[in-house]
Write a structure and sequence with these properties.
α2 crosses α3, α8 runs antiparallel to α11 and α9 packs across α10. Among the domains are: 82 residues, lambda repressor-like DNA-binding domains (434 Repressor (Amino-terminal Domain)), CATH 1.10.260; 81 residues, Arc Repressor Mutant, subunit A. A hairpin with a 6-residue loop joins β4 and β5. The strands form three sheets. A four-stranded mixed beta sheet has the order 5-4-3-8, with helices on one face. It has a two-stranded antiparallel sheet with strand order 1-2. A two-stranded antiparallel ribbon has the order 6-7. It contains twelve helices and eight strands. It is an alpha+beta fold. It is elongated and about 80 Å long.
Length: 294
């Protein structure tokens, strides 16, 4: 076994993936020193080669510099990689993977462009402007779509929006639906109620309970709840209480609340710093006809 070639290949693919020796070692269960020894001509245990190849996104053949070593089963490789991680780390590491993809889409894999290190924090203090910390935003796009989000060790979220073959517009709601939704959210007290429902269990609550928990007047609470139900932010159900029939409400989609609020802040701070940014779209977002130069 040519350990020199093996070490060189491990180092090459590790750097291509933006991994440190510590990160690669942790993924396959060895020390940083062990990875360093491999890359200096030592040889890993043969039993570790499949795990090393999976983490580096290549085949075992590729580790030995053989042709035909490219990985073709990318989803399978990704799943095997995820299984090497603690469950509590998987979402964060997936977000970082998407961040790395955004970096790649900016420089298109050009090695001469300096690599951007994954930052420790996703916020930048800007006291001179008298505002809350700005997010270090990631925004990349071309005629294929967008990757938007924030990538950092303490805050990470990414949204991938490939453009459908027949355009974005087909899959949007009519403008009136958006006016109804944003109009409901603009009502004084609506955000307080929305946050309270988000913190509560996915159960139905009568207006009196919601009013008590948020400190809003009952008549105003009832009016807001109805508006939010019409906007499909809350589900509404007729129930029977000892004192008679009543309406109860619950959050329609608890899993969507944080993403919506995150992206609202992302848009709100659109004039803030961009850590990774490259928008080179030749078409307007809402054009529907394909094939013309827009």
């Amino acid at each position: 076994m040519d350990t020199t070639v093996l070490g060189e290949q491990i180092q090459k693919y590790r750097k291509q993936r933006g991994l440190t020796q510590k990160e690669l070692g942790a993924a396959v269960g060895v020390s940083t020193q062990a990875v360093s020894q491999w890359e200096c001509g030592g040889a890993p245990d043969v039993a570790l080669l499949p795990a090393i190849a999976d983490r580096l996104g290549v085949t075992v053949d590729a580790l030995f510099g053989r042709e035909g070593g490219a990985v073709r089963d990318v989803p399978g490789t990704l799943l095997r990689w995820l299984r090497t991680l603690p469950g509590s780390e998987r979402l964060a590491r997936l977000a970082r993977l998407l961040w790395e993809a955004a970096i790649y889409s900016v420089n298109d894999g050009l090695a001469w462009i300096p690599k951007i290190d994954y930052p420790e924090t996703g916020e930048m203090e800007m006291p001179a402007f008298g505002q809350e910390p700005f997010w270090m935003r990631t925004v990349t796009g071309n005629d294929s779509g967008y990757i938007l989000g924030v990538g950092a060790q303490d805050l990470a979220f990414m949204g991938v929006f490939p453009e459908p073959a027949d355009g974005y517009e087909k899959y949007l709601l009519p403008d009136e639906n958006y006016r109804t939704m944003f109009g409901a959210l603009a009502m004084p007290g609506a955000m307080e109620l929305l946050r309270w429902f988000g913190r509560s269990r996915l159960s139905y609550y009568v207006p009196a309970v919601a009013a008590e928990q948020t400190g809003l007047p009952l008549p105003e609470t009832e009016r807001i709840l109805e508006a939010m139900a019409e906007a499909h932010l809350l589900a509404r159900q007729e129930i029977t209480l000892p004192q008679g029939p009543a309406r109860a409400y619950r959050l329609v989609e608890n899993g969507g609340l944080v993403p919506v609020l995150y992206f609202a802040r992302w848009v709100w701070q659109g004039d803030g710093p961009i850590l990774v940014g490259n928008i080179a779209r030749s078409r307007a977002c809402f054009d529907t006809e394909k094939g013309e130069n827009r």
